[in-house]
Design brief:
2 helices, 61 residues, binds zinc ion, alpha+beta, two-stranded antiparallel ribbon
Length: 61
Amino acid sequence: MRNRSGAVTADAVTIDGPKERNCLRCRAVFPSEWIGERICRRCKDSQIWRSGLPANFSVVR
Ligand SMILES: [Zn+2]
């Protein structure tokens, strides 16, 4: 009996949930853990990324 209102909405999961996204640098598809993960691991490793992106970081769909 888990039918209780107030559960996590599917929309939130769809937006922020882990999924495959395209890297902003090499455009390769990589498993992203969340919507803020826009750079694939390879690019991150090859470049020095500062911890935390700017607040006005444009979210490109
Ligand atoms: Zn990349």
